[in-house]
Design brief:
about 400 residues, mainly alpha
């Protein structure tokens, strides 16, 4: 098991590609699928994932057991098998992706808490321009495509209007308030990590089974969106009201709290099972109903602009109970964004928001131009991915 200079440079390149995928996954509007097309590895990733079947799983188990019987030869065999099947390449992409997500989660949490309007303006620009991707990938713009486009818009706007962030935050806060007994001890005396205006009211509080089931579902749906060019997994989490919860949990990993690891572990299981399930499903749907599916995806992205409008009606909460680093904290005079869109007022940073909107649009336009160039060479990766799946 030796590494040549060329192999080392290839590994660095693949880790950097994974890092870019991680950046795409944490920023709503930037699609991981688009990056796969830009890097020219879309078909390769799908063909590797489509190898997973019953015989593949049995082979993996056999190799794992061989490591216990004869560790050194067993590890070499595992390495050779994953290298031959291409999964070693996926592991390197995944490693780069994880590093990017861990590095940027705290920054994204800070921006959403303290610069919500500017952050959403940037996201709005990204999404508005990225709608071009599925539209350009349409083979024809017929009546059926228009109906699918309108259906996508209608569903997304309906979901965005129904899922009010304030209602969800209020429900969580009330639940924590009912289950925790407020203690008068100062936060510093409890050894916790608390915001300046908060106080710890409990150090033991777990997620409910419903929370775990829902976050697993969110992970499965997010990864299914991530593999599609132009559709962002983070955008799916925003629409489902869990984006902030996930990045907050990732940013709190440094506190090594068991509850955080369990929460992200279950989210990760949803991502894994969703990826395995949807890898073949997405290939099949795009192969059989390519034009209608791309039109529907374009509608979903267009409709998401309703949710990403940066100017929202705000509500003040006198007290909000939240989880921070495994502890329940009471925050006072909290500003909460609702899902009700409003026109900007003189107190809003309109000029700054417009500049961030333009910046987001320019950045996405660069990716759109690159993706269009790649797609011109590899015009229909989905048909070939499905063909590979059938062949395997």
């Amino acid at each position: 098991m030796s590494f040549s200079p060329s192999a080392t440079s290839a590994t660095i390149k693949e880790l950097l590609m994974g890092f870019c995928l991680g950046v795409a996954n944490i920023i709503p509007g930037v699609s991981g699928g688009t990056f796969l097309l830009v890097f020219g590895i879309y078909e390769r990733v799908f063909s590797i994932l489509n190898q997973i079947n019953k015989s593949f799983v049995l082979k993996c188990l056999e190799l794992v057991f061989s490591c216990f019987r004869r560790p050194v030869p067993g590890i070499k065999n595992v390495y050779a098998f994953f290298r031959e099947t291409g999964f070693f390449f996926l592991f390197k992409l995944a490693a780069g992706t994880v590093v990017a997500i861990l590095a940027l989660s705290s920054l994204m949490k800070y921006l959403l808490l303290h610069h919500f309007c500017l952050t959403y303006s940037f996201f709005f620009g990204l999404i508005l321009v990225s709608v071009i991707i599925p539209v350009k990938m349409l083979k024809r713009f017929d009546t059926w495509a228009v109906l699918c486009l309108l259906a996508g818009i209608g569903i997304t706007v309906w979901v965005s209007a129904m899922v009010n962030p304030y209602d969800k935050i209020k429900m969580k806060s009330d639940h924590l308030a009912r289950t925790c007994q407020v203690q008068s001890a100062p936060a510093e005396g409890r050894g916790g990590s608390v915001s300046e205006s908060g106080k710890i009211v409990s150090t033991i509080q777990g997620y409910s089974s419903g929370d775990y089931l829902y976050i697993a579902l969110c992970g499965a749906l997010a990864i299914s969106a991530t593999v599609l060019p132009g559709v962002s997994g983070s955008l799916v989490l925003i629409l489902m009201g869990t984006y902030f919860d996930v990045i907050s949990a990732i940013s709190e990993l440094k506190f090594f709290h068991l509850e955080t690891f369990v929460f992200l572990g279950i989210f990760g299981l949803g991502v894994i099972f969703g990826g395995l399930l949807f890898a073949r499903l997405v290939s099949f749907v795009l192969y059989r109903f390519y034009n209608a599916t791309m039109a529907f995806l374009g509608g979903l992205m267009t409709g998401s602009l309703y949710a990403l409008w940066p100017f929202k009606k705000t509500v003040f909460m006198a007290q909000q109970y939240v989880k921070q680093a495994g502890e329940v904290v009471c925050l006072e005079n909290v500003i909460v964004q609702t899902n009700i869109n409003v026109l900007p007022t003189k107190d809003d940073p309109v000029i700054a928001a417009f500049l961030f909107f333009i910046l987001g649009g320019i950045i996405m336009m660069l990716f759109v131009r690159k993706e269009t160039t790649v797609s011109a060479v590899d015009s229909d990766p989905f048909s070939r991915a499905e063909t590979d799946s059938i062949t395997n």
